[in-house]
Amino acid sequence: MFENIMVAIDQDQTTNKILDATVEIARNKPTQVTLINVSQEYVSNGMTYVPENFLKEILNEMEKASLEQLQQAKSKLEFAGINPKTVHLKGNPAHEILKYARDTEQQLIIIGSRGLSGIKEIMLGSVSHKVSQLSICPVLIVH
């Protein structure tokens, strides 16, 4: 049914559930699975008292962690017989996920839900909520 599936992962504890759902949907089917992780592109300029090289070091560590997460997720899917592509992007997670899905004609997005509710979701927003509201393809939100 779905030939192109994008799986958005992050440091959330739902990553294993997301990968399990991906295996159930993609196993034994001619499906291209793309694992995607988005890390920050910059740290707030409001932190003028922090040395710039320290901020760059933080961003480099975040990128390194992102690449490690992608590799771990790829290994789990490969163990299940799925050969995923990995993509690391930088920027606003919801925006980058939606842009990549549109540009590569994804047919399904699988994403986790952090479980924010009430005032926290209103104030902080939710990547999965934004993606589900603005996506041009179906979105599976895993809790």
TrEMBL record:
This is Universal stress protein. InterPro entries: Rossmann-like_a/b/a_fold, Universal_stress_UspA, UspA. Belongs to the universal stress protein A family. Residues 1-143 form the UspA domain. PANTHER family: STRESS RESPONSE PROTEIN NHAX (PTHR46268), UNIVERSAL STRESS PROTEIN UP12 (PTHR46268:SF6). Gene3D superfamilies: HUPs (3.40.50.620). It holds the Pfam family Usp. It comes from the Bacteria.
